[in-house]
Amino acid sequence: MHREEALEKIAWHYLKKLTREEATELIVQFFKEPLKPSLREKLNITAIIQWETHQPPPDLKPGNPIYRPILIDKMKRPFRGATNEYLAEHLRQVVGIPVDKVEGDLPKWLACPVCGYRTFEVLGDWDTCPVCGWNSDPVQEAMPDDPTGANGVSLNQARKNFAEFGAVSREKLAEIDPDGRKKYPRGA
Ligand SMILES: [Zn+2]
Questions:
Q1: Binned average pLDDT, 10 residues per bin, the chain of 188 residues
Q2: Which domain-ending residue is among 95, 126, 159?
Q3: What's the Cα-to-Cα distance from 27 to each of 14, 48, 54, 65, 168, rounded to whole Å?
Q4: Is 15 among the domain residues?
Q5: Which domain-ending residue is among 60, 95, 130?
Q6: Which residues crowd ion ligand 1, with CB under 5 Å?
Q7: 23 CA to centre of ligand 1 in angstroms
Q8: Are residues 160 and 83 part of one domain?
Q9: Residues 28-58: pLDDT tens digits?
Q10: In this structure, are residues 111 and 118 in contact, taking their beta carbons and an 8 Å threshold?
Q11: DSSP per-residue codes, the chain
Q12: Cα(140) to centroid of ligand 1, in Å?
């Protein structure tokens, strides 16, 4: 199975589990975010026109099919950088689809400066690494001994902490993805 199809099946699995409240919250988030070209091309014109106002409609119905690509996109997000092996195992063990293997090229994500797993689509944009909890702060990444910034610890201290107990700081331990080390590839 190609990884795009695997991601689609995983996304549907989680979409079906969303409560009405969770779905509403995700759609409301969409109205506040930039619209990615890859999502725009999947959306119905009505949804695009609504997005351009940056306000969800007052009578938002999360089950309306015009919002489905938004939800599918959000359900894929935690899996888009995952290895083919991880996707195959997740399909078998969680989704219940007996797939032999998943194939296709991984997106070219960047290695986290702390843990080395490829968890970032871009660096320096304040995204958080799901493996170690590093928040990609461009100033801290340029000055690796400076503790002032998004992380509360310097980049070099974060690396020591990750080696010692598996996260950039003890506070971040609770936020990291327990599957992260299995899910993402390592290296440059
Ligand atoms: Zn990391």
A1: 97 96 96 91 95 92 95 95 97 96 95 96 90 95 93 96 96 92 90
A2: 95
A3: 15, 12, 11, 12, 31
A4: yes
A5: 95
A6: 112, 114-115, 129, 131-132, 134
A7: 28
A8: no
A9: 999 999 898 989 999 999 999 999 999 999 9
A10: yes
A11: -BHHHHHHHHHHHHHHH--HHHHHHHHHHHHHS---HHHHTTS-HHHHHHHHTTS--TT--TT-GGGHHHHHHHHHGGGTT--HHHHHHHIIIII----S--BSPPP-PEEPTTT-BEEESSSSS--B-TTT--B--HHHHHSTT---STTSS-HHHHHHHHHHHSSSSTGGGGGS-TTHHHHS-B--
A12: 14
Residue 103 lies inside a defined structural domain of this protein:
no
Amino acid at 117: Y
Q: What is the pTM of this model?
A: 0.86
Instruction: Give the structural domain span for 114.
Output: 110-183
Residues 20 and 59 in one domain: yes
CA 180 to ligand 1 center in whole angstroms: 9
Same domain, 89 and 124: no
Report if residue 100 sits inside a domain. Answer: no
Assigned token pair, 7: 């991601």
Please indicate, yes or no, if residue 104 is contained in any of the structural domains.
Answer: no
